[in-house]
Amino acid sequence: MSLQGKTLFISGASRGIGLAIALRAARDKANIAIAAKTATPHPTLPGTIYTAAEEIEKAGGTALPIICDIRDEEQVKSAIDQTAAKFGGIDILVNNASAISLTNTQETTVKKYDLMHSINGRGTWMVSKYAIPHLIKSGKNAHILNLSPPLSMKEAWFKNNVAYTMSKMNMSMCVLGMAGELRRHKIGVNALWPLTLIGTAALTQVGDTSKMKLRTPDIMADAAYEIFLKDSSKFSGNFLVDELFLRREGFTDMD
Fold first, then answer.
1. From what superkingdom does this record's organism come (predicted)?
2. I want to staple 93 with a disulfide (CB 3.0 to 4.6 A). Which of 131, 179, 182, 196 is the partner?
3. In this predicted model, what pLDDT tens digit does every residue of 110-137 receive, in sequence order?
4. Which entry of 50, 113, 130, 164 is annotated as an active-site residue?
5. Is 113 assigned a catalytic role?
Protein backbone atom coordinates (compact mmCIF):
# COMPACT_ATOMS: atom_id res chain seq x y z
CA MET A 1 0.00 0.00 0.00
CA SER A 2 1.16 3.54 -0.72
CA LEU A 3 -0.19 7.07 -1.02
CA GLN A 4 0.22 7.19 -4.78
CA GLY A 5 -2.69 9.08 -6.32
CA LYS A 6 -4.04 10.15 -2.93
CA THR A 7 -4.79 13.81 -2.24
CA LEU A 8 -3.66 15.40 1.01
CA PHE A 9 -4.77 18.78 2.33
CA ILE A 10 -2.22 20.00 4.88
CA SER A 11 -2.65 23.23 6.82
CA GLY A 12 0.54 25.10 7.67
CA ALA A 13 2.63 23.01 5.28
CA SER A 14 5.01 25.72 4.12
CA ARG A 15 7.64 24.62 6.66
CA GLY A 16 8.37 22.39 9.64
CA ILE A 17 6.38 19.28 10.46
CA GLY A 18 3.67 20.03 7.90
CA LEU A 19 6.20 20.24 5.10
CA ALA A 20 7.97 17.08 6.30
CA ILE A 21 4.67 15.17 6.16
CA ALA A 22 4.06 16.55 2.67
CA LEU A 23 7.52 15.49 1.46
CA ARG A 24 7.06 11.97 2.84
CA ALA A 25 3.78 11.65 0.94
CA ALA A 26 5.38 13.16 -2.18
CA ARG A 27 7.80 10.23 -2.34
CA ASP A 28 4.72 8.10 -3.13
CA LYS A 29 3.67 10.53 -5.89
CA ALA A 30 0.77 11.91 -3.84
CA ASN A 31 -1.10 15.14 -4.56
CA ILE A 32 -0.62 17.75 -1.85
CA ALA A 33 -2.42 21.01 -1.18
CA ILE A 34 -0.24 23.37 0.85
CA ALA A 35 -2.65 25.65 2.70
CA ALA A 36 -0.74 28.34 4.58
CA LYS A 37 -0.46 32.11 5.01
CA THR A 38 3.16 32.56 3.94
CA ALA A 39 3.18 33.60 0.29
CA THR A 40 6.14 35.97 0.57
CA PRO A 41 9.33 35.32 2.57
CA HIS A 42 8.90 35.78 6.32
CA PRO A 43 11.48 38.07 7.97
CA THR A 44 12.63 35.36 10.43
CA LEU A 45 11.13 32.05 9.27
CA PRO A 46 12.19 30.12 6.15
CA GLY A 47 9.84 28.90 3.45
CA THR A 48 6.70 29.94 1.60
CA ILE A 49 3.89 27.95 0.03
CA TYR A 50 5.75 28.28 -3.27
CA THR A 51 9.14 27.05 -2.04
CA ALA A 52 7.31 24.17 -0.34
CA ALA A 53 5.57 23.35 -3.63
CA GLU A 54 8.94 23.23 -5.40
CA GLU A 55 10.31 20.81 -2.80
CA ILE A 56 7.23 18.61 -3.07
CA GLU A 57 7.46 18.47 -6.87
CA LYS A 58 11.17 17.59 -6.68
CA ALA A 59 10.32 14.79 -4.24
CA GLY A 60 7.89 13.28 -6.75
CA GLY A 61 4.54 14.71 -5.70
CA THR A 62 2.11 17.13 -7.30
CA ALA A 63 1.70 20.35 -5.33
CA LEU A 64 -1.02 22.97 -5.11
CA PRO A 65 0.08 26.04 -3.11
CA ILE A 66 -2.89 27.92 -1.65
CA ILE A 67 -2.83 31.11 0.40
CA CYS A 68 -5.10 30.31 3.33
CA ASP A 69 -5.56 31.75 6.79
CA ILE A 70 -7.53 29.04 8.59
CA ARG A 71 -9.16 31.68 10.80
CA ASP A 72 -11.05 32.95 7.75
CA GLU A 73 -14.07 30.85 6.80
CA GLU A 74 -14.23 32.00 3.18
CA GLN A 75 -10.53 31.31 2.66
CA VAL A 76 -10.94 27.82 4.14
CA LYS A 77 -13.95 27.04 1.95
CA SER A 78 -12.11 28.33 -1.12
CA ALA A 79 -8.96 26.33 -0.35
CA ILE A 80 -10.91 23.11 0.11
CA ASP A 81 -12.87 23.75 -3.11
CA GLN A 82 -9.70 24.52 -5.08
CA THR A 83 -8.10 21.28 -3.90
CA ALA A 84 -11.11 19.13 -4.74
CA ALA A 85 -11.48 20.79 -8.13
CA LYS A 86 -7.83 20.28 -9.10
CA PHE A 87 -7.37 16.74 -7.84
CA GLY A 88 -10.92 15.37 -7.98
CA GLY A 89 -11.41 15.13 -4.24
CA ILE A 90 -9.62 14.95 -0.87
CA ASP A 91 -8.51 11.72 0.80
CA ILE A 92 -6.44 12.89 3.77
CA LEU A 93 -6.66 15.99 5.94
CA VAL A 94 -3.75 17.01 8.16
CA ASN A 95 -4.58 19.71 10.72
CA ASN A 96 -1.05 20.90 11.37
CA ALA A 97 -1.31 24.70 11.52
CA SER A 98 -0.92 26.00 15.07
CA ALA A 99 0.03 29.07 17.06
CA ILE A 100 2.16 28.71 20.18
CA SER A 101 3.01 30.75 23.25
CA LEU A 102 4.64 28.85 26.10
CA THR A 103 3.72 31.43 28.71
CA ASN A 104 1.82 31.42 31.97
CA THR A 105 -1.52 33.13 32.40
CA GLN A 106 -0.14 36.51 33.48
CA GLU A 107 2.40 36.60 30.66
CA THR A 108 -0.07 35.57 27.93
CA THR A 109 -1.71 38.53 26.24
CA VAL A 110 -5.37 38.37 25.31
CA LYS A 111 -4.32 38.87 21.69
CA LYS A 112 -2.08 35.80 21.86
CA TYR A 113 -4.81 33.79 23.62
CA ASP A 114 -7.26 34.68 20.85
CA LEU A 115 -4.70 33.81 18.15
CA MET A 116 -4.00 30.35 19.60
CA HIS A 117 -7.65 29.48 20.08
CA SER A 118 -8.76 30.80 16.70
CA ILE A 119 -6.08 28.79 14.88
CA ASN A 120 -5.61 25.68 17.00
CA GLY A 121 -9.11 24.83 18.15
CA ARG A 122 -11.47 26.78 15.91
CA GLY A 123 -9.30 26.50 12.80
CA THR A 124 -8.92 22.74 13.12
CA TRP A 125 -12.67 22.30 13.60
CA MET A 126 -13.50 24.58 10.66
CA VAL A 127 -11.06 23.03 8.17
CA SER A 128 -12.39 19.60 9.16
CA LYS A 129 -15.99 20.78 8.72
CA TYR A 130 -15.44 21.76 5.10
CA ALA A 131 -13.18 18.81 4.25
CA ILE A 132 -15.51 16.14 5.64
CA PRO A 133 -17.92 16.04 2.66
CA HIS A 134 -14.97 15.29 0.36
CA LEU A 135 -13.53 12.70 2.74
CA ILE A 136 -16.90 10.95 2.84
CA LYS A 137 -16.89 10.79 -0.97
CA SER A 138 -13.27 9.60 -1.11
CA GLY A 139 -13.79 5.88 -0.65
CA LYS A 140 -10.00 5.56 -0.57
CA ASN A 141 -9.10 4.97 3.07
CA ALA A 142 -9.81 8.53 4.21
CA HIS A 143 -8.08 9.99 7.26
CA ILE A 144 -8.02 13.10 9.42
CA LEU A 145 -4.86 13.62 11.44
CA ASN A 146 -4.58 16.36 14.06
CA LEU A 147 -1.16 17.25 15.42
CA SER A 148 -2.27 17.46 19.02
CA PRO A 149 -1.54 15.78 22.36
CA PRO A 150 -3.15 12.81 24.09
CA LEU A 151 -6.18 13.99 26.05
CA SER A 152 -5.37 14.33 29.74
CA MET A 153 -6.92 16.26 32.59
CA LYS A 154 -3.78 16.11 34.71
CA GLU A 155 -2.61 19.39 36.19
CA ALA A 156 1.00 18.81 35.10
CA TRP A 157 0.18 19.28 31.41
CA PHE A 158 -1.64 22.59 31.91
CA LYS A 159 0.08 24.47 34.70
CA ASN A 160 3.00 26.01 32.81
CA ASN A 161 1.13 27.32 29.74
CA VAL A 162 -2.59 27.19 30.38
CA ALA A 163 -3.82 29.02 27.27
CA TYR A 164 -1.68 27.06 24.81
CA THR A 165 -2.49 23.68 26.32
CA MET A 166 -6.20 24.48 26.32
CA SER A 167 -6.04 25.31 22.61
CA LYS A 168 -4.18 22.11 21.73
CA MET A 169 -6.56 20.01 23.83
CA ASN A 170 -9.38 21.53 21.78
CA MET A 171 -7.75 19.94 18.74
CA SER A 172 -7.62 16.63 20.59
CA MET A 173 -11.29 16.90 21.56
CA CYS A 174 -12.03 17.24 17.85
CA VAL A 175 -10.34 13.86 17.40
CA LEU A 176 -12.39 12.28 20.19
CA GLY A 177 -15.69 13.58 18.86
CA MET A 178 -15.11 13.28 15.13
CA ALA A 179 -13.78 9.72 15.43
CA GLY A 180 -17.20 8.74 16.72
CA GLU A 181 -19.10 11.04 14.39
CA LEU A 182 -17.36 9.75 11.25
CA ARG A 183 -16.93 6.08 12.12
CA ARG A 184 -20.00 5.12 10.08
CA HIS A 185 -18.31 6.72 7.08
CA LYS A 186 -15.14 4.67 7.69
CA ILE A 187 -13.02 7.80 8.12
CA GLY A 188 -10.11 7.41 10.52
CA VAL A 189 -9.60 10.37 12.87
CA ASN A 190 -6.44 10.32 14.97
CA ALA A 191 -4.00 12.56 16.86
CA LEU A 192 -0.20 12.53 16.68
CA TRP A 193 2.20 14.17 19.14
CA PRO A 194 6.01 14.09 19.52
CA LEU A 195 7.67 12.29 22.40
CA THR A 196 10.45 14.88 22.43
CA LEU A 197 10.78 18.44 21.14
CA ILE A 198 10.99 18.74 17.36
CA GLY A 199 13.51 21.17 15.93
CA THR A 200 11.52 23.54 13.73
CA ALA A 201 12.07 27.15 12.78
CA ALA A 202 8.86 28.07 14.59
CA LEU A 203 10.22 26.69 17.87
CA THR A 204 13.13 29.12 17.77
CA GLN A 205 10.60 31.97 17.88
CA VAL A 206 9.44 31.02 21.38
CA GLY A 207 12.79 30.64 23.10
CA ASP A 208 16.45 29.67 23.03
CA THR A 209 16.77 26.11 21.71
CA SER A 210 20.58 25.98 21.52
CA LYS A 211 20.92 23.72 24.57
CA MET A 212 17.93 21.52 23.82
CA LYS A 213 18.05 18.02 22.36
CA LEU A 214 15.81 18.29 19.34
CA ARG A 215 14.66 15.74 16.80
CA THR A 216 14.01 16.58 13.16
CA PRO A 217 10.44 16.71 11.83
CA ASP A 218 11.10 13.48 9.92
CA ILE A 219 10.06 11.29 12.85
CA MET A 220 6.63 12.92 12.84
CA ALA A 221 6.43 12.53 9.06
CA ASP A 222 7.27 8.83 9.25
CA ALA A 223 4.67 8.30 11.98
CA ALA A 224 2.02 10.22 10.01
CA TYR A 225 2.77 8.15 6.90
CA GLU A 226 2.25 4.90 8.81
CA ILE A 227 -1.06 6.20 10.15
CA PHE A 228 -2.26 7.01 6.62
CA LEU A 229 -1.57 3.42 5.55
CA LYS A 230 -3.79 2.02 8.32
CA ASP A 231 -7.31 0.79 7.54
CA SER A 232 -9.35 3.91 8.30
CA SER A 233 -12.45 1.85 9.05
CA LYS A 234 -10.67 0.22 11.99
CA PHE A 235 -7.92 2.62 13.05
CA SER A 236 -9.60 5.66 14.55
CA GLY A 237 -9.85 7.59 17.81
CA ASN A 238 -6.19 7.01 18.70
CA PHE A 239 -3.92 9.46 20.50
CA LEU A 240 -0.47 8.49 19.26
CA VAL A 241 3.05 9.53 20.26
CA ASP A 242 5.53 9.39 17.37
CA GLU A 243 8.32 7.18 18.74
CA LEU A 244 6.03 4.90 20.75
CA PHE A 245 3.81 4.33 17.73
CA LEU A 246 6.73 3.70 15.37
CA ARG A 247 8.29 1.20 17.78
CA ARG A 248 4.96 -0.61 17.95
CA GLU A 249 5.00 -0.73 14.14
CA GLY A 250 8.41 -2.40 14.16
CA PHE A 251 10.75 0.56 13.71
CA THR A 252 13.92 0.45 15.82
CA ASP A 253 16.24 3.21 14.52
CA MET A 254 15.14 6.48 16.12
CA ASP A 255 18.32 8.49 15.31
1. Eukaryota
2. 131
3. 999 999 999 999 999 999 999 999 999 9
4. 164
5. no
